[in-house]
Design brief:
alpha/beta; DUF779 domain-containing protein; 8 strands; DUF779; Hypothetical Protein Aq_1857, Chain: A; three-stranded mixed sheet; five-stranded mixed sheet; single chain
Length: 136
């Protein structure tokens, strides 16, 4: 859905990739959703693919390590000018994300895009556009 020459909106660290591999071995295909909640609710949440229902209030930002990454529209309005990097740290979060039993939690690191990067931004899709693209 995005070209390699375009600036990705979301990246992933090698440590997070290793955790994703462990989770994928146990749960199959995965997906991420960054909600607009408070506390741990604002952490990226990892689910078995399809376990979290995507709709019109969500935005698809791209893929990390083969997993679709979504965010609520309200969060996207705030974060649209930043590149997000999914990382993992030791410690338990208080969420329903799949990594919690491993004693780690995913988190987001961010930085502002440069003007050049923003000029060549990978597209983001509204939830309904994403769902339609998957049916095509």
């Amino acid at each position: 859905m995005s070209s390699q020459s375009q600036t990705p909106r979301v990246l992933v660290t090698p440590a997070a990739e290793a955790t994703i591999d462990l989770l994928r071995d146990e749960h199959g295909p995965l997906m991420f959703h960054q909600s607009g909640g408070c506390c741990d609710g604002s952490s990226p949440m990892c689910f078995a693919k399809g376990e979290f229902r995507i709709g019109g209030n969500d935005v698809w930002l791209g893929q990390i390590h083969g997993c679709d990454f979504f965010m609520s529209t309200s969060q996207f309005e705030y974060w649209q000018h930043t590149q997000l990097t999914v990382d993992v740290v030791k410690g338990r979060g208080a969420s329903f994300s799949l990594e919690i039993p491993l004693g780690v939690r995913f988190l987001i690191r961010s930085r502002l895009f440069t003007q050049e990067e923003e000029a060549n931004m990978a597209p983001a899709l509204q939830g309904e556009e994403y769902l339609e693209s998957q049916q095509a």
